[in-house]
């Protein structure tokens, strides 16, 4: 992690001093960490930025809502006219390319004007945004049609560069994960790496079966706070620890058609029986490939911890149990 990123994340997690904040528009306060002296962002500009959004809850003084560093995916932000005095757009207009700052915004105002409900269990009414402006595409006097074309080319070039980087560093990410977790993996001819913790019974799932399983999917990199970087799980405790818990999700073993799962997961599940437990390390070609999907970037290796609870044969009403 680069030095500048460390400073930003430390600030967002409350590890740097929070004094000397200046008064901005409305209820906003801010502190600029670094200024390169470049032209300030204006209405109509298009920016690439990294950032961390935190709120203070009853159980966590720095609950992370968004962290582009953890996601390894910068945000692309079209700057529009401010919705209210002291919104994030008004804060960004204090910055230029290469600048970094922290903004504290009023959550009531954000909810009122954005329509997005506030998080539950808040201890304070403030959201903190720690921002690093990576690049700025200034609109200037360009007509909208010309600037839209420039924005498209800008985004495509940045997205292509990100994908090329992801592809280049993927093998190193996998090797680092294996080394840091002291894993003794077996490597299949496909490139799938795995550790079988329990083989389960002799039953093996086929592509026409539905599998009942507990699982956790995570990225190979940890979060900035050292926690596992989980993107999906059937385990409520893990979801809460990872900050992805949702009241709308049932955290129970999931029934999933085996043939519709990522290729690396299919291969791994077929190595164990009911009652089996396995860790799977998928290169991107056995996961979501060069296109990615949802929170998963292109060329992203993934880790799945799976416990096979049952196998449901076609037209069967109940799973085969251990």
From TrEMBL:
It comes from Pedobacter zeae. The lineage of its organism: Bacteria, Pseudomonadati, Bacteroidota, Sphingobacteriia, Sphingobacteriales. It catalyses: [protein]-peptidylproline (omega=180) = [protein]-peptidylproline (omega=0). This is peptidylprolyl isomerase. The gene is fkpA. Residues 208-312 form the PPIase FKBP-type domain. It is an enzyme of class 5 (isomerase). Pfam families: FKBP_C (PF00254). Keywords: Isomerase, Rotamase. Its EC number is 5.2.1.8. PANTHER family: 39 KDA FK506-BINDING NUCLEAR PROTEIN, FKBP-TYPE PEPTIDYL-PROLYL CIS-TRANS ISOMERASE FKPA. InterPro entries: PPIase_dom_sf (IPR046357), PPIase_FKBP_dom (IPR001179). Gene3D superfamilies: 3.10.50.40. Belongs to the FKBP-type PPIase family. One of its GO terms (molecular function) is peptidyl-prolyl cis-trans isomerase activity.
